[in-house]
Amino acid sequence: MAKIKLKNYLEIMRPINCVMGGFTVFIGLLISHPEPDFLSFIQNSVNIFLIIAGFLIFFLVAGGTNAINDYFDYEIDKINRPNRPIPRGDITLKQSLQYYVFLNVIALILAIIIGFITVNGILIPLIVLFFQFIGYLYAWKAKASGLPGNIIVGVTSAVGFPFAALFINKIQEIPSLIWAIYIAASIFQTSREFVKGMQDVEGDKKFKIKTIANLHGYKTATIFMVTFSSIGAILFTLMIFFFGLNIFHIIFIIIADAIVVTLNILLISNPIDPKKQKISSLLIKIAGAILILAFLFGYFL
C-alpha cells in the first residue's frame, strides 16, 4: 500500500517534466561557471551542492505546481484527465494541497541556503517565492485565461537557465547565451500549451476555459502552435551562427528542427484528430528534450 501511495504522489508531480526542468538548472550552471572545465568546477564541494540543490528546487517547485494545478482542476480532470491521481481517487484534495505546501517549503529552504553561499543572497529565495506564487496563481486563475496562462507556462518552464546563472553571476553578468536559450525555450514550450488546449476542449467548454482552441477553434490553435514552435526552433538554429556552437550542438538542434517540421505538418493535416493531437504534443516534448540535450552534450563532447 505504501508503494502504491508513493507512486501516486510521484505521478501527480509529472516527474519527467520536472526532471527536464531540473536539467535546465544544470545546463545554466554549466554555461555560467568560470572554471576552465566541469571537473575543475566540481572539485569544490559547494558547487556540487549548488548542482544538486538547484536541480531539486526546480523539481520540487514544478512538482508542487502540478499538484496544486490538479487540486484546482479536479472537476475539469474528471472529464479531460480522469486517470490522474485525484479524479481516480488515489489522492484526496486535502492531500494534494498538503503535498503542494510540503514540496514548496523544502524548495524554499534549499533556496535560502543557496542564497547564503552565493553572490545574490536574498534574491535567490525571493525568485523562488515569486515563481511559487506564479505557479499558484496559474493554477488558481491564470490557466483559465487562455493565452496569458499559456505564456506563463512557457516562461516558467525555462526559467532554470537564468536562475542557475544567478548562483554564480550578478544579473547583469549573466552570459548572453543563457538569455538566448531562455527566450527560445520559453517560446518553444508555449507552443505545446496550444496543443494541450486542443486535447482538452471537451472539459474546457463546460467550464468556460478561454483556450485558443475553445474560443477560436482547432485551426486557429494550430496556427498558434505552428507559429510558436517554428519561432522557437528558428531561434535555437540561429544560435549556431551567433554563438559559434559546436558540431554536437548542431546535430541535436537539426534533429529537433526535423521533429518540429514533422509535428507541424502532422497537425496541420488534420487538427481535429485526437490521435494527431496526442502525437504532436508528445513530439513537442521530445523535441524540447533534444534541445536541452544539445546544450548538455554540446558542453561535454
Description:
The structure is a single chain. With 301 residues, the chain is an all-alpha fold. It folds into 2 domains: 172 residues, Tetracycline Repressor, domain 2 (Orthogonal Bundle); 127 residues, Up-down Bundle (Four Helix Bundle (Hemerythrin (Met), subunit A)). It contains 15 helices and no strands. The longest helix has 28 residues. It starts with a helix and ends with a helix. The mean pLDDT is 95.
Shape: globular
Give the class-level CATH name of the largest domain.
Mainly Alpha
Poorly predicted parts: none
Protein structure class: mainly alpha
CATH architecture of the largest domain: Orthogonal Bundle
The number of strands is 0
Strand content: under 5%
H/E element string? HHHHHHHHHHHHHHH
The percent range for helix content is: over 70%
Mean pLDDT across all residues, rounded? 95
This entry's quaternary arrangement is single chain
State the helix count.
15
User: What is the rounded Rg?
Assistant: 19 Å
Report the span from N to C terminus. Answer: 44 Å
Give the number of domains. Answer: 2
Largest sheet geometry: none
CATH topology-level name of the largest domain: Tetracycline Repressor, domain 2
* CATH superfamily grouping of the largest domain: UbiA prenyltransferase
InterPro entries: Prenyltransferase_related (IPR050475), UbiA_prenyltransferase (IPR000537), UbiA_sf (IPR044878)
Subcellular location: Cell membrane
Protein name: UbiA family prenyltransferase
GO molecular function: geranylgeranylglycerol-phosphate geranylgeranyltransferase activity
